[in-house]
Write a structure and sequence with these properties.
- By secondary structure, the protein is α/β, with parallel strands linked by helices.
- The chain folds into two domains: 35-371, Malate synthase, domain 3 (TIM Barrel, Alpha-Beta Barrel); 375-407, no CATH class.
- 51% of the residues lie in helices and 11% in strands.
- The strands form two sheets. Strands 7-6-5-4-3-2-1-8 form an eight-stranded parallel beta sheet, covered by helices on one side.
């Protein structure tokens, strides 16, 4: 049967579709290849040393050995499956010895505070020199970066001076090398202008420091209502990403600044609050397919024992040791629950604020993926074996969408 439309009549619609497809491919390139860290550890810039991550690993191992020396102890503390406890405990110990931190952020914002200009200048230079030493010694984690102060009317000059001093010193001290996975984190964003201004500064610094174009990516902090929804009522994140002109690599959710900005009382400011889930889901949907990676926030109840033996003083009593363990285990369980909550929501990265959170971060991540490994492998094998046709394993139906999730 002869079709009604001629090739000429189809040309314009096909051209329109081709242009739309090109635009969509540029805006939504898909999942970014390469590794994503499972966490970011924050530390004040004044405390950073070339071997900071090794020190954190040693402290994390000490906490694990003191409060969960056996697999059964760890399983009891964070409700691990007994069948997986031995494997996970061994994996965590190995991870803490081999690569205790995956991503570290030198913090000149909340973890550092407001200081005299001369003092912050000195810390910017010293932190950069320490990073250069770590780069030469091979002690830096796979990902690292610096969080500057907000580009507010009061703090922008100070923020950009710190950024300039840090990057200039790092370039001069690193003998031509540059840390892999380096980012500049921008906090408390109120609109795309701040992102665009930072991108302008980074353009100039790359030229002056003879860095490759794009060597200084931007990481957005999503921690204000204005960074979730714009003044026009639209999702703000795509506009923030566009303002970065290709520099934005990730968006990190700031739990406590965000909940505080909504007047949520301190007792209810936590990662699992419904307002946080809503904001993160808006962020997730608006950036889906963009290649921008998303990170959840932190648990601020830390696994710190209430009793410590004074140097040269009496040892802790049995009751004090027991209270210490209960306190650490309670904080571990909360942290593990928060990490799992993030993973269920497909936020595969979060923040850690204390070395004793590293064991529960890794234990929960390992458990989350190992628990469903056998079933997922069977389902994926059947799905692939039938050339991506819809399949049924037991009472679970899989099609192309769930097949992607199994990967």
């Amino acid at each position: 049967m002869k079709p009604s439309l001629t090739p000429g009549e189809l040309f314009a619609p096909n051209q329109r579709l081709a242009a739309a497809h090109r635009a969509a491919a540029a805006r939504y390139p898909g999942v970014r290849g390469g590794r994503q860290a499972v966490h970011t550890v924050y530390g004040g810039a004044h405390l950073f040393r070339a071997d900071t991550t090794q020190r954190l690993g040693a402290l994390a191992l000490r906490a694990l050995e003191e409060y969960a020396p056996t697999a059964e102890d760890l399983a009891r503390a964070i409700d691990l499956s007994p069948a997986l406890a031995e494997s996970i405990h061994a994996r965590v110990k190995d991870k803490l010895r081999r690569e205790p931190v995956e991503d570290f952020r030198i913090d000149f914002e909340d973890g550092y505070g407001i200081r005299l200009d001369a003092e912050e200048d000195g810390h910017a230079v010293a932190a950069a020199e320490e990073m250069a030493r770590g780069l030469a010694a091979g002690t830096l984690p796979p990902f690292c970066g610096i969080r500057i102060k907000p580009l507010s009317s009061e703090l922008a000059p100070r923020s950009l001076r710190t950024l300039d001093l840090f990057l200039t010193t790092l370039r001069e001290s690193a003998a031509g090398a540059w840390p892999q996975g380096f980012v500049v984190t921008l906090p408390k964003i109120l609109g795309p202008e701040a992102v665009a201004a930072l991108a302008d500064v980074l353009d100039t610094l790359e030229k002056k420091l003879r860095l490759k174009p794009g060597a200084l990516p931007i990481e957005l902090m999503i921690e204000t209502p204005q960074s979730v929804f714009s003044a026009e009522g639209t999702a703000a994140a795509p506009g923030l990403v566009a303002a970065g002109r290709g520099r934005v690599r990730s968006a990190h959710f700031g739990t406590y600044d965000y909940t505080a900005s909504l007047d949520i009382t301190a007792a209810h400011q936590h990662m699992a609050h419904p307002s946080c889930d809503f904001a993160k889901h808006v962020l997730q949907v608006s950036l889906a397919g963009s290649g921008v990676r998303i990170s959840d926030g932190a648990t601020n109840i830390l696994p710190v024992p209430p009793h410590r033996a004074a140097a040269g003083g009496p040892a802790l009593t049995a009751a004090q040791r027991d209270e210490n363990q209960r306190a650490v285990h309670a904080a571990w369980k909360l942290h593990a629950d928060h990490v799992r909550h993030s993973l269920v929501g497909a936020y595969y990265q979060g923040w850690d604020l204390h070395p004793a959170q590293l064991p529960t971060r890794y234990a929960t991540v390992f458990a989350f993926f190992l628990e469903g490994l056998d079933a997922a492998a069977t389902r994926l094998s059947n799905f692939v074996g039938k050339a991506a046709q819809a399949t049924l394993v037991g009472d679970v139906f899989d099609d192309a969408a769930t097949g992607q999730g199994l990967l």
